[in-house]
Amino acid sequence: MKADPEAAIMHKCRELILLLNIHLNHFPKHEKYGLCQTIRNCVYGVLGLIVECQKRYHNKTSLTKLDVQHEQLRAFVNLAFEMGYFSYHSNKRARSEAETLRRYTAVSVLINELGAMIGGWVRSLRLIPQPE
Question: What three-state secondary structure class fits 129?
Answer without folding.
Answer: coil
